[in-house]
């Protein structure tokens, strides 16, 4: 289950669910095959498995009611002109449709909402241009500018209006941090061209536990990002339209559902939806900066003195650190690009690196510009109005600009959630491939999106949203701990990476990464400590629990992998009994058992099927009392006693228990036997008919499941008469 | 599905789940058997199906971990000394225990609460003596005396105090009605010695619809009896201990659960629990009558004039009829004996008839005695105190007698519910045997009680109780409609019965039944009309709906029965193709299909199992893209290509859909083939591991279920390594 940094282990592919065998496994397979003896060679198949496709085009009506639809096709010839293997068919689109009518209708509706399915071969083309990638990946990062400076000033103002001046040096440090982290990720992207998420970088360089810790932090952060962003966005809407306030929770869930649907459609389409609002926000804030700085230049950059605010706390180191940590939330989302490298158009890493550069540059301009402008205008955080709104009102006293700014802010907050929709499923994909998350997160849905991961994120975020009733003020303190945990581990991992691979410029890179790791670690510690009581403890508790869960999942898959691994057959002539190697056909000794409750069409079908296998067969009847047992034996004789019958009187009227115990006793008497239990299954057409039947077949199956070498065969009987 | 009145169709037997074949069905079976040809005769079984039991006692340790427990035994020799059929074993008690440890613990707990399981042969001995049957079956009937007279007077007093004198003639008419209905049921019991419930009598003589209508009425009444009695009983308790009032709903549910547990233990034990309170109630009321009448005799039976009450309504015919109908609730429960005839000791019908006689006599004495005594003492119904309580306070001014009377009344009201527990499951049993109710109501639990019917009644009554919050005043108006519907249909049925079977005394009996039917019918109409607005409309709506449901269930079972009925094979030599008769082994043509996702231990086991069957075999692999398909074929060749492989590229990455469609296409190409799909099933030991797997096996099974002639075989792979 280990992963090598040198293989193509970071490629996202639809075949990830089918990992190739290692050379030694192929070798074992060959040795098993050498000893394989079927009891008699099958003399051809009674039907052509290629459905006659290779001979000629099938005539209409040939396949009964399926004829008008071409469900399977012969694969097209290879570009090099090589003949394809004969035993291959390609399933066409209709072959994916379910058979039942309601399921078909659902499938069509799904197609209308999500678009037609995409072929696996389309996975390469579903890539993002830089101008599209920028808004998709940066909405989380840039939207933080809407609340980051304010979060910092809100802490500083606790020490009185005079302390607000500290915002300028703190902003300077934060800009250094942003540039350092940005530079650090610039180094990481080419080193991990197939996706440089913190999970992968930390796993590779610091070990699985560090990787899982980073993953747990990121996952919590993604869920919180969606919940918080949606809450903030919905709050902006309900502030404008107070009549909608009682519908906060359904509105939020609706927004999450729309985001889910948009992302299930696939990457490019999702991008198209999100391009405009992000650029609108950037343009609006840039306009704000230009006009604001222009006015400040008009008065010679003389800062307006802020109104006097009484100090609530002394100005200590802890307060400054808390302000720094709060300001650092402006950086959440910076890792989005490095996670999404494979979603870029080729050359992926180069385009990703350029996009990251633009993003960090924009972040620095917006963040620094806003912080300084707030200082110049002498603004103070007020609980009833955001600083951005104050700034907008001051800068654009008239005209539509203020409204536009607020609308763009609300919209980008809603869309910031989308970054999480991009990264969360991809993270789960990588984790699942290493066996740290359920395998189903490997599966690419019919739109080539990781449907299961998207669904998991939506459900988790909606749950958080509903549990907190859309009042996510209490969630914000939890917000930055997870992401800075991941930043720190990722950059520390890069330090190890450069130390292990010395080369041109690796010393400079190591220094950059070390600086970034140290600063991120400081922010992490400050955030965890300063916000511990307000909710950060939840993250501190949840991260180890998640790591434990991932670890347990990994252990289960490892056990499974070992148990299902092929074992070479023993050396020497094929032994008569099953050895510790794989079972071979010539070693299987059959006993077919047919439980018969009453003699009717269904049980005779099962008996006919059993007898037609030509293996030793035994019928078993469970009778509630002697009278019934005698009566049944009489019927059996009337039929002709074609199969040996064993009657078990169950004086306590239980059926499944005695039958299961009897099969177990048979197995104990002949441990080398494979018991095939053949059960007729009457297929109900209507769902409401099911409670009218005893489900004996299902209960028997469940009771027999733990028994070794007991094979259960269901012979369907359809109600047509 | 028809039932003949002359067969033993009214016997309650544990074998009812296994109805015997009709002679023509046995004949068909023989003709099918004549044409039966297995492909090669099995040369003996590889293991002795009697587990060597007939040869010698097994030595310890022979059956592995099961050795210490003798799970199966040889049946004891028949009393006549006849040798038993060799192919029979008897499951001992431990063979009923489930295998898994939590299920075993649950099973033991269940045994502690409900007692050890009872053998089917014990069904004859689990019978009631008359002195035990009387309290069990009469608690419903006699408890009605506690509210019957009051219900009548409450209506009469609406026309003023002067109208109360009408209670004497009305009581006289009711006594006539009681005696008439009692005599009527006395005629019914010997005519239907195996249970003379209204459902059976009405079905037999008036047709299935009348029987179902009676059954629907009775079922509603049983559920209401439980809910109302428990509510009244709990109310009596909470009146004495007001602190318990907030716990009305949980208390009621607890009482229902205790009643359920008592009845699941079985008839005799349940009787023992209920003997004392019923006799205590009878003794207390008799003492009341003796003392009260003695005092009245002391004053020369001069009635005390009742206090003046102003009239609210005029004294019209409708009011008198309403009073009559209200008084008639005293008769609910009179049908209990005739339903329970088979639960009596032999000779059942004679003991039942005697018990019914005693019951009606007691009812008449208590009802008439109380009504006249109330008149003599000049008592008037008051909302804050029951008439019985007023009478007790007046008759026993000092001493413990009053308290004893009230306690016995509360207790018998609680226990009245028990009559419903006796009759409801039995009614469902008869309906299930006719195919009018789900088959599972035929099953006798391990204590020989109809566990499923008891459970259904408890759940329904608890639901009604919870929905109405234990305030069942609003349920009382619904109460009598159902039962008088059943009375009327049952007695009308007996009229038809005597007309069809003229004989000695049949004219007298017909007249008695006709009188009873007419009077019951009048009460029914009066009750339905007078109480329509107060809730009786619910019953008027529910009865036809229930009848429709029973009818639909019957239709489904009839369809099933027809579909599963044996069809004779066509005359002439055995045809090569499947004809419209039953399928025979020589007609089954196999194609074994093994879907293989990856080559590991599990899929190789499935392949080995498939190959060992010696039938034509085809492996199918579904690949998400060409690359993966090529890789898989390479591995297949490395293994040795022992089985023909067909690869299906599914470009939209769905697996189940294309596979199901492919199997359907194969079936269309060879309609005579039986496709056996062999799927490995990895058995998870822990429940929490299940979400980590895709459940492809289950989903495939569900997708294949609608396909004809597609057999699904699960080869279990247990995780041991």
Task: Describe the structure concisely.
With 721 residues, the first copy, chain A, is an alpha/beta fold.
The overall pLDDT average of chain A reads 81
The total of beta strands of chain A comes to: 7
- Roughly how many Å apart are the termini of chain A? 54 Å
- Poorly predicted runs of chain A are 1-9, 56-68, 574-580
Structural class of chain A: alpha/beta
Tell me, what's the shape of chain A? elongated
Sketch the major β-sheet of chain A: 5 strands, parallel
Could you describe the 3D structure shown?
With 721 residues, chain A is α/β, with parallel strands linked by helices. The first copy, chain A, has three domains: 51-76 and 84-94, no CATH class; 129-557, Amino acid/polyamine transporter I, CATH 1.20.1740.10; 585-718, Rossmann fold, CATH 3.40.50. The first copy, chain A, is built from 22 helices and seven strands. The first copy, chain A, has helices spanning 23-34, 101-114, 130-143, 148-156, 167-191, 198-206, 208-240, 248-265, 267-298, 317-327, 336-339, 348-376, 387-395, 401-433, 451-467, 479-500, 506-530, 532-564, 601-612, 626-639, 656-669, 696-704, and strands at 72-73, 88-91, 589-595, 617-623, 644-649, 673-683, 710-718. In chain A, α19 links the parallel β3 and β4 (617-623). The longest helix of chain A is centred in the N-terminal third of the chain and has 33 residues, at 208-240. At the A-B interface, α1, β2, α18, β3 and α19 of A face α1, β2, α18, β3 and α19 of B.
């Amino acid at each position: 289950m280990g992963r090598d940094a040198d293989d193509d282990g970071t490629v996202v592919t639809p075949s990830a669910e089918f990992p190739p065998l290692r050379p030694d496994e192929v070798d074992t397979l060959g040795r098993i095959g050498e000893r394989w003896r079927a009891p008699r060679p099958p003399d051809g198949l009674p039907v052509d498995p290629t459905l006659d496709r290779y001979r000629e085009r099938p005539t209409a009506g040939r396949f009964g009611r399926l004829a008008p639809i071409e469900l399977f096709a012969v694969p097209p010839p290879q570009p090099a002109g090589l003949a394809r293997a004969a035993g291959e068919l390609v399933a066409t689109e209709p072959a994916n449709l379910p058979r039942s009518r309601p399921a078909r209708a659902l499938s069509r509706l799904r197609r209308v909402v999500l678009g037609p399915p995409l072929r696996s071969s389309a996975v390469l083309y579903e890539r993002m241009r830089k101008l599209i990638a920028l808004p998709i990946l940066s909405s989380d990062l840039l939207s933080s500018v809407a609340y980051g400076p304010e979060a910092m000033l809100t802490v500083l103002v606790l020490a009185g209006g005079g302390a607000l001046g500290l915002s300028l040096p703190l902003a300077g440090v934060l800009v250094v941090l942003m540039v350092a982290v940005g530079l650090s990720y610039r180094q990481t992207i080419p080193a991990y061209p197939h996706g440089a998420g913190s999970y992968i970088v930390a796993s590779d360089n610091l070990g699985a536990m560090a990787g899982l810790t980073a993953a747990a932090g990121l996952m919590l952060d993604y869920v919180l990002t969606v919940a918080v962003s949606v809450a903030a966005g919905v709050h902006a809407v309900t502030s404008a339209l107070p009549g909608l306030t009682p519908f906060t929770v359904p509105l939020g869930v609706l927004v999450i559902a729309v985001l889910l649907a948009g992302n299930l459609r696939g990457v490019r389409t999702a991008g198209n939806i999100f391009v405009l609002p992000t650029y609108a926000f950037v343009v609006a804030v840039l306009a704000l900066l230009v006009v604001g700085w222009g006015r400040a230049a008009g008065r010679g950059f003389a800062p307006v003195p802020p109104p006097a605010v009484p100090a609530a706390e002394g100005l200590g180191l802890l307060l400054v650190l808390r302000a720094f940590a709060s300001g650092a939330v402006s950086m959440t989302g910076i890792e989005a690009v490095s996670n999404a490298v494979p979603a870029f158009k080729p050359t992926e890493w180069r385009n990703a690196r350029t996009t990251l550069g633009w993003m960090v540059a924009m972040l620095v301009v917006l963040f620094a510009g806003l912080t300084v402008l707030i200082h110049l205008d002498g603004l103070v955080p007020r609980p009833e109005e955001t600083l951005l709104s104050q700034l907008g009102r001051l800068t654009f006293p008239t005209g539509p600009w203020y409204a536009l700014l607020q609308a763009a802010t609300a919209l980008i907050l809603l869309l910031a959630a989308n970054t999480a929709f991009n990264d969360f499923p991809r993270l789960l994909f990588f984790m699942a491939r290493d066996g740290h998350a359920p395998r189903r997160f490997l599966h690419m849905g019919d739109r080539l999106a990781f449907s299961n991961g998207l669904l998991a994120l939506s459900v988790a975020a909606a749950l958080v949203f509903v549990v907190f009733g859309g009042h996510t003020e209490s969630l914000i303190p939890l917000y930055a701990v997870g992401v800075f945990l991941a930043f720190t581990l990722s950059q520390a991992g890069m330090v190890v990476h450069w130390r292990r691979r010395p080369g041109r410029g690796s010393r400079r890179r190591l220094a950059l990464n070390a600086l970034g790791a140290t600063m991120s670690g400081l922010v992490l510690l400050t955030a965890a400590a300063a916000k511990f009581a307000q909710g950060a403890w939840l993250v501190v508790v949840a991260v180890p629990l998640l790591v434990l869960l991932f670890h347990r999942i990994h252990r289960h898959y490892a056990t499974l992998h070992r148990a299902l691994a092929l074992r070479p057959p023993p050396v020497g002539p094929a032994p008569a009994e099953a050895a510790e190697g794989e079972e071979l056909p010539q070693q299987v000794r059959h006993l077919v058992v047919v439980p018969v409750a009453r003699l009717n069409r269904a049980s005779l079908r099962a008996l006919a099927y059993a007898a037609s296998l030509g293996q030793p067969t035994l019928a078993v009847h469970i009778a509630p009392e002697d009278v019934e047992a005698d009566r049944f034996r009489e019927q059996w004789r009337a039929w002709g006693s074609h199969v040996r019958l064993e009657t078990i009187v169950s004086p306590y009227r239980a059926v499944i228990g005695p039958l299961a115990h009897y099969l177990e006793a048979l197995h104990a008497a002949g441990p080398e036997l494979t018991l095939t239990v053949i059960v007729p299954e009457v297929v109900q057409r209507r769902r409401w008919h099911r409670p009218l039947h005893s489900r004996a077949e299902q209960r028997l199956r469940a009771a027999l499941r733990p028994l070794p070498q007991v094979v259960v065969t269901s012979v369907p009987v359809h109600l047509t008469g």
